[in-house]
Amino acid sequence: MKRTNYTSILGSVLLAGTLLASGANAQMAPGEIKFMDDNSKIEASISGSPGDAVAGRKIFANRKLGNCLACHINTEMSDQGGFHGEIGPPLEGVNERWEEAELRAILVDSKKALSEDTMMPGFYSLSVGVRIADKFKDKTILSAQQVEDVLAYVKTLK
Ligand code: HEC
Predict the structure, then answer these.
(1) N or C, which end of the chain has less CB nearby within 10 Å?
(2) CA of 120 to the centre of ligand 1 (A)
């Protein structure tokens, strides 16, 4: 009679659990991200987790992080005072113009998703420009989770 090997069953269960857990939180490196539909879309969260709109709002306004206000008017943030740039289009209603997967692609790598010579930086890309300071080489401006947070916030703009 064949004896069941409980140790190996337990081992497989634990391994499957670990794989599932890491799969649910699989952050992608910039080079691993799959762009679809002519580079216009990224379907899944690049951090493996949903974004947090409250955190995203802070990143949006932070000059050292998103610094989105340097180029975009955002009426939802008129309480923030200060300078709102006009290099890019105003962002209200952006959620109605683009699907989530398209907005994600724009934020991750605007040069790929929009156009190679857009002024908009790619926030999760390693090719952000030629005149890049050494300390920013091989680094993305935002982390994968920060991109998802900004995306969640941008999607609230009416
Ligand atoms: C240096 C300027 C600059 C910064 C900083 C910048 N953008 Fe942009 N953005 C642009 C420009 C310019 C466009 C228009 C695309 C083009 O070049 O034709 C654009 C386009 C967009 C679009 C598409 C808008 C539309 O209506 O088509 C979104 C969404 C967007 N930006 C979000 C952001 C967010 C969020 C941030 C901050 C994380 C940000 N941008 C930071 C310049 C900038």
Answers:
(1) N
(2) 5
Q: Which CATH architecture fits 27-154?
A: Orthogonal Bundle (1.10)
Q: Whose CA is nearest to atom 3 of ligand 1?
A: 120
Model confidence, pTM? 0.84
Domain residue extents for the chain: 27-154
pLDDT in tens, 37-52: 999 999 999 999 999 9
For a mutational test of ligand 1's pocket, the pick from 60, 72, 91, 97, i.e. the residue with the most ligand atoms closer than 8 A to its C-beta, is 72
